[in-house]
């Protein structure tokens, strides 16, 4: 009998403990559900503090060095190459003979033209004398004079052909490529030599439209070269394109004197010094991504008592990802930089960062 009573008491205690545990679990679940519900009502956002800073407006642009002058020297006439007088890497001066073309047939034409000229001189002298005595008409004399001029022109033309048998350098520079060998038959316009002048080079870069108004012709630009880390260079802006490309970038060329280290095709970086001093100091800025529907809207959200408040601001210049704020913010406000698409004025927010 006593054992039965004990079993009953133990059972009652266990049932009581189980009921208490179940009630406790339900209370905890209710708290967790309430917390989740409270968080769901809030929109997660990232924020930054609007602050004043000194803006560095220097602008870097990458590009490659190209020769100031380069040309493909070609033949002026048809013929067979007899001699090639230079090789790749040779330094040449403007007008220097690079190769010669066989001229035997041309020399025959020269002799024939000179003979024709001598006959024309003799005939013209005969007509001049006959005209004085009335032996020929004025028209016959004029024809004789015209024939003499034509023969003189023919001799000069053959002289030009003889001169063209010598292929001469159009510019001073270095033979970068030789595309001809003795015995080759060439035609007018056939490229024979590639000549480059690298006494000075041009660094060709693309400058964004937001920066193009900050540079000017003749401006001196510091330049660094990746493969020459121990050397520094400087160049002068010699060309700013009047028209941008499809990506709204403007081609700019910077002429650089070559100390012997630079080669055409090297990669370089130009640093355009556009920092105008006091106007870029102690400037109130916010990130460009903070604006609703872009910087041009002038609207952004700030944090106010745990909610998002939309305000309008007056913007100034844009420096990369930084936007100058002229009015509408005093500094120190928490500005929302992400999650704006889900926000309305007065929306509850949860600051993630």
Automatic annotation (TrEMBL):
Signal peptide: none annotated. It comes from Kaistella flava. This is Efflux RND transporter periplasmic adaptor subunit. The keyword Phosphoprotein does not apply. The keyword Manganese does not apply. Residues 75-196 form the Multidrug resistance protein MdtA-like barrel-sandwich hybrid domain. Residues 204-273 form the CusB-like beta-barrel domain. Residues 103-130 form a coiled coil. Keywords: Coiled coil, Membrane, Transmembrane, Transmembrane helix. It holds the Pfam family BSH_RND. Residues 284-350 form the YknX-like C-terminal permuted SH3-like domain. One of its GO terms (cellular component) is efflux pump complex. One of its GO terms (molecular function) is efflux transmembrane transporter activity. Belongs to the membrane fusion protein (MFP) (TC 8.A.1) family. The chain crosses the membrane at residues 6-23.
